[in-house]
Protein: CDC73 protein
Organism: Lophotis ruficrista
Amino acid sequence: TGKEGQPREYYTLDSILFLLNNVHLSHPVYVRRAATENIPVVRRPDRKDLLAYLNGETSTSSSIDRSAPLEIGLQRSTQVKRAADEILAEAKKPRIEDEECVRLDKERLAARLEGHKEGIVQTEQIRSLSEAMSVEKIAAIKAKIMAKKRSTIKTDLDDDITALKQRSFVDAEVDVTRDIVSRERVWRTRTTILQSTGKNFAKNIFAILQSVKAREEGRAPEQRPAPNTAPTDPTLRNKQPIPAAYNRYDQERFKGKEETEGFKIDTMGTYHGMTLKSVTEGASARKTQTPAAQPVPRPVSQARPPPNQKKGSRTPIIIIPAATTSLITMLNAKDLLQDLKFVPSDEKKKQGCQRENETLIQRRKDQMQPGGTTVSVTVPYRVVDQPLKLMPQDWDRVVAVFVQGPAWQFKGWPWLLPDGSPVDIFAKSKGVFL
């Protein structure tokens, strides 16, 4: 017995013989009778297979162990519970019978061992291993034995060999890695990977910042004057601190009265910033003008700053139609007014351009200096298509109006005649009919 991984146990001849004598009994009755006779019981799973083998129905059985040792000790005691009176009866039996049984078993076992040794150990049957099998078979057996030993017992030699193999493998891997790293070339670093190649901050972002700054300050970006260039206005020069470098115009401030005494000639006078009417009126009109009242040249919308108010934006304003069918809209206004290039609104929509509420454009303007030189300045313009959102003070900065013709588009504008005519609008600003 001992199937399915259970420890093996062997049935004695007494148990097998008792089973054959009581084979006609049912298994529970057989178990009780075997317990009464103190004989090991053949278990129910083994009974059918054993009886089939003993009756000759099968020639062999999977429960037969041909490698079982000849020396088999006393088998397990029966696991059938006995009554209390039977236990007491066994306890009252003398020990002489047990000792006699043990002695007989020992003698029988010794006799079997002696007979087995005499039948096995015969010197005439001993032959050389090389005569019994070939060298290849012997080598194969040795290899199997060594493999079995290595799998069961791990020696210090095996540890040394394994460590040596691992060390050699690591050394080889380090050499290969060093060779690979030596041929590597750094293409991107953690710094260069964060830098954008499609955006130029000096061209895009800085230009936007300058436009916003010019819009907030309400003036054009400052231009660096060319060296040895005449100042734009004497009043502006007087307000500025005296430069450390030499300036040939400084001496005229002190010698002007001495050289023109009695003639009242303004050596620093200029027609710059004056209208044609004031020039043609003659000296009588010019007498009323004083150098202190001469304003700094600025765009037309900034010629009359509101008095006694905080400094506001002076950026000129251009109004365009809000209709999507207009030739100029917020989509193509910058291309037309700044780049002087007409792009239809439908094409701008196909390009994915977003419509903004207002935009800021930059126009370059050549300005004549008193010395005869020309300076190119950049003037920002604010382009809007919702004039009703303008503040009252913003209308003084409107310099151009693009209109389509219907009179209803001027509803709510401040520059309208009592009859609703927009004539006064085009008198104060440049009008363009689309």
